[in-house]
């Protein structure tokens, strides 16, 4: 006979088969001599069996395919991409809204309106960004894209004679309305961009002109329904020539 | 670096589903809970190597998500009550699956007791693993197990029809 009466914890461990073999035998003997305790334990056992059977039946039902790790991975990926897209859009809104808005405030304060400041800002943000809305190789592709978004857009001239080919474009928007940034690149990877949008409250029609903003230079003009700006590195000597070509064509 | 591979996870799905059902007591939200658990596990990337601890880890994610969800639900209910359209008590559609499987007594136990009983009696977790999964000390596991089994017994016995009266001579 067992000398030690098993504790409550030991009784549970006995049911769950977690006792050392020696102790297990002792508890067995104890239960044989104590039918009341044995009945209690039998009750726990039968409850556990009931639970196992019931849940086993449930688990035999086929799994919902959406629970498969592959499906979950896929949906996670999609959600992540959506989140990035949202973040990128927010950045554009903040960048242009913030910069544009701040610029607009400054300009009204100073009563001097730096023309096409948003063009310079857009060039800074996006001309070298890895992702543009579209990537293109041929001028025709660029033209088609532009036509989709800007009804009155004149044909963009081919700049390949000057060593520049189109790489892509980005549709932008600030409080003055929609705008487009067309990006061109030369063989060395230098980029210039052509910015266009409708004249707005702060950016009215303007005479042909140019100004230096930091390391960048903007050359701008108005023609037809749009204001244009060619933004390039201030040191880039080809820009003046490019601007003339564009100015004539657009 | 041990990557949590899909096969390991797939093997655990039915177990996770059983555990989820015992918590939610309702099939479709149990599946939602399992899906959220798999998402969490995949995006955390497992640092778990031993299979046993992987199991405890997955159960712990699921349990945590369930408890957080409950908390949110209660807060939501308080808001609804604040706006004068509170709904007291659980919905009647709940518990259906469990009641049908003869688990009405089990379904009436408190959440933490249901969780523990399933992990220990059905999934065969050691007390230590169960403590990990439910994020409680092992002493709590023991006392809770004792209470849970006693409560389940009581409910089960209360449910059995009273013995027929014997006619006395």
TrEMBL record, chain A:
The protein's name: Anti-sigma factor
From TrEMBL, chain B:
Tell me one Pfam family matched here. PhyR_sigma2
RNA polymerase sigma factor 70 region 4 type domain residues? 104-152
Q: Which residues form the PhyR sigma2 domain?
A: 11-62
Task: State the family it belongs to.
Answer: Belongs to the sigma-70 factor family. ECF subfamily.
Q: What Gene3D superfamilies does UniProt report for this protein, alphabetically?
A: 1.10.1740.10, Winged helix-like DNA-binding domain superfamily/Winged helix DNA-binding domain
Keyword Transcription regulation applies: yes
Provide the alphabetized UniProt keywords.
Answer: Sigma factor, Transcription, Transcription regulation
Q: What is this protein called?
A: Sigma-70 family RNA polymerase sigma factor
